[in-house]
Amino acid sequence: MIEIVLITRSSRLQGYIRQALYACKTCYSKMNIRAGVCLACSFHCHEGHELVELYTKRNFRCDCGNSKFGNKECNLEKSKNATNIENMYNQNFDGVYCTCARPYPDPENENNDEMLQCVICEDWYHSKHLGCKDVPGDDAYAEMICAACMEKHDFLWKYATKYSTMHNSTASYKNGEKILNVESLPNECTMPQKNVSEIKGSCFWLEGWRTSLCSCESCKKIYKEQGILFLLDPKDSVQAYEEAGKITKRESQYEKGMKALASLDHVQQLTAIEEYNNLKERLKEYLQKFAKNKKVVREEDIKEFFSEMESKKRPKVVVPTYCR
Question: Rounded to an integer, what distance in angstroms lies between the CA atom of residue 162 and that of residue 106?
Fold first, then answer.
């Protein structure tokens, strides 16, 4: 059953992957160390705690139960590495976002501004704090890199002159989808050489812009030294992660269940887990009778069980959301 896998397996065994994460402020207040836990651990190990939803982060391994949590063990995976050395942590793990370092939603601001995620630092920014006069509509760009990351990796502005919304005349359409005219020179560096040092602010990139990045050995060295080699990985983007989730026939039962559960809001997730626990306990009691009497469980017996469960459905219980 998918539901059984959902709450009995941490994502740790999958290694460093892009996944939905939570920061536990209850545990953080005790240890004062940034850490992230997977969706399964947020339910099984941190139920009733104050959780911050982090959405997805790349190349992350669940921290639950490791040295960051002191003597607190993970209920799903007892054996864990002391630390996950490849994990990256930003201010989001403290429950704040953007250059203004405010929570979201902000209790002091009734008109919460739209927030956009930078594909490099993965922090979230209010549109008014992006350092741009105008923010393009959602359909006009595919990804955004914040002003700080563009300044840190300023060579990317050379690509922005051709593959961002600041210069989209190189874009064309095929079968209703935007594509880029990428010029390639075999075995040569294709990085544009136009001097763009005067450009500042955040950058909004067109669909397919990553395919325009030069992958010659010289450029790969730059990406590696600056810690952004992941930009060359076609599976790195959030969009690729979401698209992969649609290919259900290639997913394991665990992956399908986890992504289905992640698509619900936290109240719905809690309700689903509560119903699962109710089902598990009743099924366990029902099957114990067969084990005690050494009887074989038939298809008819299982149908009878679920028929009785259907007739005994409990009224819907509204579960309050966690604070942020």
Answer: 37
